[in-house]
Amino acid sequence: NAGVTQTPKFQVLKTGQSMTLQCAQDMNHNSMYWYRQDPGMGLRLIYYSASEGTTDKGEVPNGYNVSRLNKREFSLRLESAAPSQTSVYFCASSEGLGTYFGAGTRLSVL
Amino acid sequence: QKEVEQDPGPLSVPEGAIVSLNCTYSNSAFQYFMWYRQYSRKGPELLMYTYSSGNKEDGRFTAQVDKSSKYISLFIRDSQPSDSATYLCAMSGNTGANSKLTFGKGITLSVRP
Asked: Are A105 and A8 in contact (CB under 8 A)?
């Protein structure tokens, strides 16, 4: 049982480049989330998807887009990366009180 | 004022000590309370959750909630070096499809052998 799988684990981008962070869960959860974690800021919600076919903005959505491809997969896209988007990104899924996180993607934007 | 405030730390204790980690919150809509543990360079993992005032015990861990004071705590008894990690409190207003979590900033605990 893999849980929540994120790819890639590490990425370095130049300012202005685009990329997509992939996330898949095998727990048949309806809800999925993207968080970013920065030193001194904790975990902040970027976007979430309550169910397949729906997405909503979280606390810090600017500069990001998301796609809920199907029940298993939820991707996060940076169209034009900025140094302020240097962070660790976590995908999560939930059903009820249990929210489960992936191992994270460490992104550096130079 | 942030919705969830957590003692910033870091915290260093000797092995065997009792550890108390605390969070306060301002949003009365929060009904569900969780503690996550995050090891270095890993994702957060759910440690405990509770949804009522009072205590909930799981092995060496006890979660305490006081809704009247908007205050939650996690106690770790007989702390071990393997407990060294960052601990994050998290809260939610519901358990349904939009059960978004609001996190504290986390506190890093180091247990010295």
From this structure: yes
